[in-house]
Design a protein that fits this description.
alpha/beta, six-stranded parallel β-sheet, 2 helices, 22 strands, 12% helix
C-alpha cells in the first residue's frame, strides 16, 4: 500500500485532502499519510484527518510515498514540484469523479481536477495543472504544465498554451488561440487573440458609482 502525502496544507491542500479521502476511502492501494508545509502552524484551528508531517524542504522522500499537489500559487507550485522531483518523488493525479471528463482526455502527473469541471475530448492537460470547480477546458486544448484554470474560467476548443499560465475566475480564451508561457488573465478578462510569453490581459476594473440606502 502506498502512503499519499499532500504537498501544501493551506486552503487548497485541505480541499485536496478531502477529495482524496473520498477517492481513496475504499482503496486497498492508497492511504493518506499527511501534509507537508513549510508553514508549521498552517493547520492551527482546522480539523483534518491527517497530521502535518513536517516541512517540504526537510522531508526525505520514501520509496513507498506518493504525492498529491496541494499548492495553488503557480510559481510556488513549480518550485516545490521541482525540489521533490529531484529527490525521486512520484506524483499522483487526482481527478474528481464528479468532473465531466471525456474518455480521450490525457493527463500528466500531479494534476488536480475539481468536481464539476469540464475536460473536453482529446485535451492534453500538462503536469501539475489545476482545473478548479466549474472551470471548462474545451476539446483539443493543450494546457501547458503548471497552469491553473480558476472557477468558471473557460478555455474553448483548440487553444494551445505554454506553461505556467493563470486563468482567473470568469476569464476566457477564444477558440484556437495560441498563448505563450506565463500568460495571465485577470478576473473577467477575455483573450481574443494570440498572446506572447508573459502577457497580462486585464478586464476593466469595477468602479463604485454611488451608495444606495434601502429604507426599512
Amino acid at each position: 500500500m502506498y502512503d499519499v502525502i499532500i504537498v501544501g496544507a493551506g486552503g487548497l491542500g485541505r480541499e485536496v485532502c478531502e477529495m482524496a479521502e473520498d477517492l481513496y476511502a475504499d482503496s486497498s492501494e492508497y492511504r493518506l499519510k499527511g501534509f507537508l508545509s513549510d508553514v508549521l502552524d498552517v493547520l492551527d484551528g482546522y480539523e483534518t484527518s491527517v497530521p502535518l508531517l513536517g516541512t517540504i524542504k526537510d522531508y526525505v522522500v520514501q520509496p513507498n510515498d506518493r504525492f498529491l499537489m496541494g499548492i495553488g500559487d503557480v510559481e510556488g507550485k513549480k518550485k516545490v514540484a521541482e525540489l521533490l522531483l529531484a529527490q525521486g518523488a512520484e506524483f499522483l493525479s487526482l481527478i474528481h469523479p464528479r468532473a465531466l471528463v471525456f474518455r480521450t482526455a490525457r493527463f500528466g502527473k500531479g494534476v488536480v481536477v475539481y468536481p464539476f469541471a469540464h475536460i473536453g475530448a482529446n485535451c492534453d492537460i500538462g503536469d501539475f495543472c489545476l482545473v478548479n470547480v466549474h472551470a471548462a477546458v474545451g476539446h483539443d486544448v493543450e494546457l501547458g504544465k503548471y497552469s491553473e484554470v480558476c472557477p468558471y474560467a473557460t478555455i474553448t476548443g483548440g487553444v494551445k498554451t505554454g506553461s505556467e499560465c493563470m486563468f482567473a475566475i470568469h476569464s476566457g480564451v477564444a477558440p484556437k488561440k495560441v498563448l505563450g508561457a506565463r500568460v495571465r488573465l485577470s478576473a473577467g478578462a477575455m483573450a481574443l487573440h494570440d498572446l506572447p510569453d508573459d502577457s497580462l490581459v486585464a478586464a476593466a476594473p469595477s468602479k463604485k458609482m454611488r451608495t444606495i440606502h434601502f429604507s426599512k
